[in-house]
Write a structure and sequence with these properties.
The complex is a heterodimer of chains A (830) and B (132). With 830 residues, chain A is of the alpha+beta class. In chain A, 61% of the residues lie in helices and 15% in strands. Chain A contains 25 helices and 20 strands. The longest helix of chain A is centred in the first third of the chain and has 79 residues, at 148-226. Chain A starts with a helix and ends in an 11-residue tail after the last strand. Chain B is an alpha/beta fold and 132 residues long. Chain B has helices at residues 10-20, 33-43, 59-68, 86-94, 107-122; strands spanning 2-6, 26-30, 47-50, 76-81, 99-102. The longest helix of chain B is centred in the last third of the chain and has 16 residues, at 107-122. The chains are: A alpha+beta (830), B alpha/beta (132). At the A-B interface, helix 16, helix 17 and helix 24 of A face helix 1 of B.
Chain lengths: 830, 132
């Protein structure tokens, strides 16, 4: 667009040419005039000379004629000489006139006519002179009287006068011509001036149109731009540089308007991102705000987690779930490939076209981005308050280099999003903490109740609902003391202000009631022993804004405590009783004189008490070993028939009132068991059978493979404990099946007596530690309450099972099973 | 003096019997709490030796019943028990027992105690001697 310059150059050149032409015109005109003037001057002076010589010629030929006449009349020689001289002079003058008149050809005919007349006169005059000379004065007079020369002279004078008149006319014409040359020159100068004026006016008009008006328009447009009006377009349809300037201004205006729009959108973005509380929401908002700006259609948001690791947290715009899943899976890979150094410096990193990224570090990114169906990406670091909190990735499917403007925009947007991300992460953390607190609150096994500072219930957990019988919804706003009334020992209500929660609110310090004797009265009136601890809830300034009451049901603990106490009591009692006897009788033996038989009886008491003590200690040690898992079986194949026989023989010897019998089925399989322990089991059961049948009777030990063993039951007992027996049998069979063995793999041993028997109530805890049937006959028989417990444990360690069928006063049958394969030993219930 | 020994262990009753025999005492025996209370009410023994862990009714309940019944409240009750912890002792004394013997006990100490009770009862016009 050099047109204006070209045009102005052309105009100026034209102007210069015109001025030069004008100057030249004036100069040339003047010179021409001067030249004309000079030539005319020469012409005029020539005319003057011509006329002067013509007149001089007239004077000479008049002089010659005069002197001729004189001579003719007088014959004066002087006159004759003067005539000759005047003739020569006249000839000369005529010659000069002829020469001078050469430039004017129009004069020549006239001069010729004058010359002809002169020559005719001269000839006539000469003739007369000559005639005088020869003929004397008379002849002359005759000649003169003839008047030939006189006529010729008159003719000459006429022609000469005509020439003179012509010359005079020509002289006037020349003078007039000289005058007209001046006027021509003046006129030319005037025309030139007018033309220059016209041209200048033209140039002025042109400049006004081509430069002045557009300049004004530009000025007002730039004024508008400066004043902030970005909406009015700059339009100047002038095809020159000013038009180009206007075009540039328009581009500038659009760009500025674009920036203003971008700023506006940034402001909107900032307003929107502040509202986003979830990371997914933030990612969506960021994409919605930035996507149209830079043309990206997809975004990914990563955040630095608590451990300082960058984690992908949200994706937006990925319509293909497979791709999204792939990105999530490749999270680690991406992180490793990120140009973190630049990002930590807060620099927006753009990969305009991943296919052309040369750097090796970016190779995995290139592959991944390509797999995602993207060709370009921009990584926007999110830096909040100087710390790197995350990363926003934008993706393009096509080649997309970031221009400076977009990079700056992304950088700015990054700052906005970073602030929102930091806030969202804090919010998330707070939510998580609140969720955690809520989960703990509701899941905790102790009853927890929250109140406001006035002690009104605001929340209550499940355990508290179960404990108190109220539901959380019902108790909202109720005074907590109405929801959880408590009593001291003796059903005395505890005053609300004395309770830990009230103390915690009053003092701002935790408080508790951990001692025994606090009972919670439930909604349905039950009393539950509880331990209560409370703490105030403080705000950051230390003001009490509420309180928490933790109520633990300690009934189980109390039970355990009581059981423990009872156990200690029992053991203590069982140890002290034989000790008392040993001590007492021994002291009596030492200090007292007694008859011999009394002494013997006392010694027997001491002996029996010692045995009892030893048995008790053995039993306690067995229990302890079994319970700590230190009792290990040493299983071997056993021939039960001989084992039973061996166990029974000492009993047969001791028990005179009992008939002791063994019923061993034929074809019994070999049984696996620890010989000592099987001995112990059988000894305990047979010993019990004898001990609890003080009236004597039959004690039968039957051994049979499990199917046949069913018949070895007491007919009466079958009715009494049938359900349990059936269950036991079924269980036995089931266990055997579960163990991968048929029923033939178990051998059942039963010990039947005809003793005191038991009622169903008495059998309930029969196999439990230290349990003794609370009956005089039983007490009289003595015992620690450990025998059956130990027996049961031993049977179970062998993979067998023990059960009892009994009827009060009709005797009991204790049965147990033993495995016939060694791989079953130890695989039963423990 | 008429004495009652209540204990579910026959050997313990036998020990007490042997310890106190030959001193002109009438020794009654009971093997559980209910029996002990019946004997105490029917025979009005001067001294009752009570075991705590007894079938049917425990010694503490027997003691409380004896002490709360005006007809028997004058009876001296001595707990003779294997319950040796302080708490058990306190419970025994709270139930109104006059003394508390822990098993194993010394027959001699029991004898001395019975002698003191006898003296208190034998000395008419005498104030009850202060017990240690």
């Amino acid at each position: 667009m050099r047109r204006l310059r070209v045009q102005l150059t052309v105009l100026l050149a034209m102007l210069g040419l015109l001025v030069a032409a004008w100057g030249a015109t004036i100069f040339l005109g003047a010179r021409n005039a001067a030249l004309l003037n000079a030539s005319e001057q020469v012409e005029v002076s020539r005319f003057d000379e011509l006329r002067r010589i013509a007149i001089d010629f007239e004077m000479k030929f008049v002089d010659a004629e005069t002197n001729q006449r004189i001579f003719l009349l007088t014959g004066n020689a002087g006159a004759r000489a003067r005539y000759a001289l005047a003739r020569r002079r006249a000839d000369d003058r005529l010659g000069r006139v002829r020469t001078l008149a050469l430039p004017w050809p129009t004069l020549l005919p006239r001069i010729d006519r004058v010359q002809t007349a002169y020559v005719k006169w001269a000839k006539a005059a000469e003739g007369e002179v000559k005639a005088r000379d020869r003929f004397g004065p008379g002849a002359a007079a005759v000649v003169v009287s003839q008047g030939a020369s006189q006529n010729r002279f008159t003719e000459l004078r006429i022609h000469h006068t005509a020439l003179d008149q012509l010359l005079a006319g020509l002289q006037v014409t020349a003078a007039r011509q000289q005058h007209s040359t001046y006027r021509d020159t003046q006129r030319l100068a005037l025309y030139a001036a007018v033309m220059i004026l016209a041209t200048v006016t033209l140039i002025f008009v042109y400049l006004r149109r081509a430069v002045g008006a557009p300049a004004d328009a530009l000025r007002s447009a730039s004024g508008r731009l400066a004043g902030g009006d970005l909406d009015t377009p700059v339009e100047l349809p002038v095809p020159n540089e000013l038009g180009a300037v206007a075009g540039d201004l328009e581009v500038m205006r659009r760009r500025l308007a674009g920036r203003m729009d971008a700023l506006q959108r940034l402001r909107d973005l900032s307003a929107n991102v502040v509202g986003a509380t979830s990371l997914q929401g933030l990612c969506n908002v960021a994409l919605a705000g930035l996507g149209p700006e830079v043309g990206a259609a997809r975004a990914a948001l990563a955040a630095v987690d608590q451990q300082g690791r960058l984690q992908l947290r949200a994706l937006a715009g990925f319509s293909d779930p497979a791709v999204a899943e792939m990105i999530v899976k490749a999270d680690e890979e991406i992180r490793a490939a990120l140009p973190l150094g630049d990002l930590y410096d807060g620099q927006v990193v753009g990969f305009a076209d991943v296919d052309h990224v040369a750097s090796r570090a970016a190779e995995p990114v290139r592959e991944l981005v390509a797999r995602m169906g993207s060709r370009s990406l921009a990584l926007v670091p999110l830096v909040s308050r100087g710390s790197f909190v995350g990363l926003l990735g934008l993706f393009w499917s096509e080649h997309h280099p970031l221009d400076q403007e977009q990079e700056a925009l992304l950088g700015l947007a990054g700052n906005q999003i970073a602030g929102a991300l930091a806030a969202a992460l804090r919010y998330e953390e707070a939510e998580r903490a609140a969720g955690e607190a809520r989960a703990v609150f509701y899941a905790i096994a102790d009853g927890v109740l929250l109140t406001d500072p006035a002690g009104r219930v605001t929340a209550m957990n499940r355990a508290m609902e179960l404990l108190s019988g109220w539901t959380e919804v019902e108790v909202q706003g109720m005074p907590y003391a109405d929801v959880l009334p408590v009593e001291e020992e003796g059903s005395i209500p505890i005053r609300p202000e004395a309770r830990p929660l009230a103390r915690a609110i009053a003092t701002g310090e935790p408080a508790s009631d951990q001692g025994y004797g606090v009972d919670l009265v439930t909604r349905d009136g039950r009393r539950v022993p509880v331990a209560v601890s409370s703490a105030p809830i403080l705000d950051p300034t230390g003001r009490v804004v509420g309180a928490v009451d933790v109520v633990r049901d300690v009934s189980r603990e109390r039970e355990v405590d009581e059981v423990k106490t009872a156990l200690i009591s029992t053991v203590s009692h069982e140890l002290r009783t034989p000790l008392t006897l040993i001590h007492g009788f021994a002291e009596l033996l030492v200090l007292r004189d007694m008859p011999v038989e009394r002494q013997r009886a006392s010694a027997e008491e001491i002996l029996e008490a010692s045995r009892r003590l030893a048995r008790l200690i053995d039993d306690l040690l067995s229990v302890s070993r079994m319970e700590s898992g230190r009792l290990v079986l040493d299983p071997r194949p056993l021939d039960l028939a001989s084992v039973v026989e061996r166990i029974l023989s000492p009993f047969r010897a001791m028990a005179a009132r009992h008939t002791i019998r063994a019923e061993v089925a034929g074809g019994l399989p070999v049984v696996w068991g620890d010989p000592d322990k099987v001995d112990q089991i059988l000894t305990n059961l047979v010993g019990n059978a004898i001990k609890y049948s003080p009236g004597g009777g039959e004690v039968v030990v039957s051994v049979a493979p499990l199917p046949e063993a069913r018949e070895a039951r007491l007919p009466e007992a079958r009715e009494a404990r049938l359900p349990e027996a059936r269950e036991a049998r079924l269980l036995g069979a089931r266990e055997a099946r579960l163990l991968g063995a048929g029923e033939a793999d178990l051998v059942q041993v039963s010990v039947r007596d005809q003793g005191i028997g038991m009622s169903p109530g008495e059998m309930g805890q029969l196999f439990e530690k230290f349990y003794r049937v609370d009956r005089d006959e039983v007490r009289r028989a003595g015992g620690t309450g450990l025998g059956l417990y130990i027996t049961k444990r031993l049977v179970e360690m062998h993979g067998g099972r023990i059960w009892v069928e009994s009827r009060l006063g009709a005797g009991s049958v204790f049965s147990f099973t033993l495995p016939s394969r060694d791989d079953l030993v130890g695989r039963g219930s423990r | 003096m008429k004495l009652l020994i209540a204990d579910d262990e026959p050997s313990v009753r036998s020990l007490v019997h042997v310890t106190l025999e030959g001193d002109e005492h009438t020794i009654l025996e009971a093997s559980d709490g209910v029996e002990a209370l019946e004997v105490a009410r029917s025979e009005h023994p001067s001294l009752v030796l009570l075991d705590i862990m007894m079938p049917r009714l425990d010694g503490l309940a027997v003691c409380r019943a004896i002490k709360s019944d005006p007809a028997t409240s004058g009876t001296v009750v001595v707990m003779l028990t294997a319950q040796a912890q302080d708490r058990d002792r306190d419970q025994g004394l709270a139930a109104g027992a006059d003394d508390y013997f822990t098993k194993p006990f010394s027959p001699l100490a029991l004898l001395n105690m019975v002698e003191r009770v006898r003296k208190t009862r034998r000395g008419p016009g005498q104030a009850n001697p202060r017990r240690p």
